[in-house]
Amino acid sequence: MFPAENLRDWRGEKVIDPDGSKIGELEAVYVDTATDQPAFATVRTGMIGRHRLTFVPLDGATVSPSAVRVRYDKKVVSDAPTIDLDGELAAGDEPGVFAHYNLPYQPGAAGERRLARR
């Protein structure tokens, strides 16, 4: 395992928890608008016909030849905020994503969004 870099190149690859349990597939990377660094990923979860995109923090994520490993347990991720496959994260929903993982939320300057999809 090595630190995750260029995570956008891992789109479609497995996302696993610390124990190696598959959470889903990497769909998109959301960057922190203040630093332009990857902050969250959306992971395609659910069953065929009922897929959703679930948010998971990328802090401390590592990669192996076949997967992206995040620091959060599959159960914690499965209870996280989601959006539809073709949906967008509403600005008002950003604090809830951070709160689910007990991460501090500071809106951008002048109340701007904190996360942007890349």
Task: Note the topology.
Blueprint: E1 2-3, E2 14-16, E3 22-32, E4 38-45, E5 52-57, E6 62-64, E7 67-69, H1 74-78, E8 82-83, H2 94-100, E9 115-117
Supply the helix-strand structural class. mainly beta
| Number of DSSP helical runs | 2
Number of strands: 9
What portion of residues is helical?
A: 10-25%
* Percentage of residues in DSSP E strands: 25-35%
Unreliably modeled segments: none
Distance between the termini: 24 Å
SSE pattern, N- to C-terminal: EEEEEEEHEHE
Shape: globular
- Average predicted local confidence, pLDDT: 88
Radius of gyration: 13 Å
The largest pleated sheet is described as:
9 strands, mixed
Q: What brief labels describe this structure?
A:
118 residues; 2 helices; mainly beta; nine-stranded mixed β-sheet; 9 strands
Can you describe this structure in just a few lines?
This protein is mostly beta strands. It is built from 2 helices and 9 strands, in the order βββββββαβαβ. Strand 3 (22-32) and strand 4 form a beta hairpin.
Could you describe the 3D structure shown?
By secondary structure, this protein is mostly beta strands. Helices cover 10% and strands 35% of the residues. It is built from two helices and nine strands; from the N terminus they run E-E-E-E-E-E-E-H-E-H-E. Strands 1, 2, 3, 4, 5, 6, 7, 8 and 9 form a nine-stranded mixed β-sheet that branches. A hairpin with a 5-residue loop joins strand 3 (22-32) and strand 4 (38-45). The longest helix has 7 residues, at 94-100. The two termini are 24 Å apart. The mean pLDDT is 88.
